[in-house]
Design a protein that fits this description.
Chain lengths: 114, 112
C-alpha cells in the first residue's frame, strides 16, 4: 500500500464538459475526504465519507458537484458543466478509525478548465 | 464559523537561526489544532498536533487559548525545513465536525 492515490493527476477540459476524478484511500481507512485548493490558498473542505455514507458537505459543493463512495472503498468526484472557476487542485485524504485526527493526503488532481 | 489565519505568506530564515511561524484561529468551542507540512514535490502530511505535545523534527507548537494562537517554533533552522507549512483546525471530536479548516500557508525558506 503506497498511500492514497488519485487519478488522473492532471486534467485539462473545456468549459461546459463533465469531469470525474477518482480517489483510492489507504486500505482499512474508513473515512475519506475531498478538498479543493486554489493558488495561494490552503485546502478547502468539500465533503467527507465514513464508509459509504456521505456525512458532511460544504457550501462550496454546488449542485454541479457530486461525490460518491459506493462500496466504502474508492470515491469519485464529478463536476458537471465545468466552469473556469473550477480550475484548482482537488485533494483526497483518508483517515483510520481511532486516528481520525490524522488525515493522509493523496497527490491531488490538477484540473484546468479552458 | 471557524477560521485560521497565517499572516506570513513567505518567511526566510538563516540556517541555525530560530524559526517561528505564526497561526491564529477563530473558533467558539475547543478546537484541535494541527500543523501540516508539504515538502517540495511531496504530499501534504501531518507534522504535529497540539494534543500530543510532541516535538517533531525539532518543531514544537503550544496552543494559547487566551491569544487564540498556535505558533510553530524551532530553535535552530535546518535546510531541510524549507517547505510550505499549513496551520489547520478541527472543531473538536464531536461527530459531524470532522473537516479541517486550513490557513493560507507560509512558505519557509532556509538560507544556507
Amino acid at each position: 500500500d503506497t498511500g492514497v492515490s488519485q487519478n488522473p493527476r492532471h486534467k485539462i477540459t473545456k468549459r461546459g464538459q463533465n469531469v470525474t476524478f477518482r480517489c483510492d484511500p489507504i486500505s482499512e481507512h474508513n473515512r475519506l475526504y475531498w478538498y479543493r485548493q486554489t493558488l495561494g490558498q490552503g485546502p478547502e473542505f468539500l465533503t467527507y465519507f465514513q464508509n459509504e455514507a456521505q456525512l458532511e458537505k460544504s457550501r462550496l459543493l454546488s449542485d454541479r458537484f457530486s461525490a460518491e463512495r459506493p462500496k466504502g472503498s474508492f470515491s469519485t468526484l464529478e463536476i458537471q458543466r465545468t466552469e473556469q472557476g473550477d480550475s484548482a487542485m482537488y485533494l483526497c485524504a483518508s483517515s483510520h478509525p481511532g486516528h481520525y485526527y490524522e488525515q493522509y493526503f493523496g497527490p491531488g488532481t490538477r484540473l484546468t478548465v479552458t | 464559523a471557524q477560521r485560521v489565519t497565517q499572516p506570513e505568506k513567505l518567511l526566510s530564515v538563516f540556517k541555525g537561526a530560530p524559526v517561528e511561524l505564526k497561526c491564529n484561529y477563530s473558533y467558539s468551542g475547543s478546537p484541535e489544532l494541527f500543523w501540516y507540512v508539504q515538502y517540495s514535490r511531496q504530499r501534504l502530511q501531518l507534522l504535529l498536533r497540539h494534543i500530543s505535545r510532541e516535538s517533531i523534527k525539532g518543531f514544537t507548537a503550544d496552543l494559547n487559548k487566551g491569544e487564540t494562537s498556535f505558533h510553530l517554533k524551532k530553535p535552530f533552522a535546518q535546510e531541510e525545513d524549507s517547505a510550505m507549512y499549513y496551520c489547520a483546525l478541527r472543531g473538536g471530536s464531536n461527530f459531524g465536525n470532522e473537516k479541517l479548516t486550513f490557513g493560507t500557508g507560509t512558505r519557509l525558506t532556509i538560507i544556507p
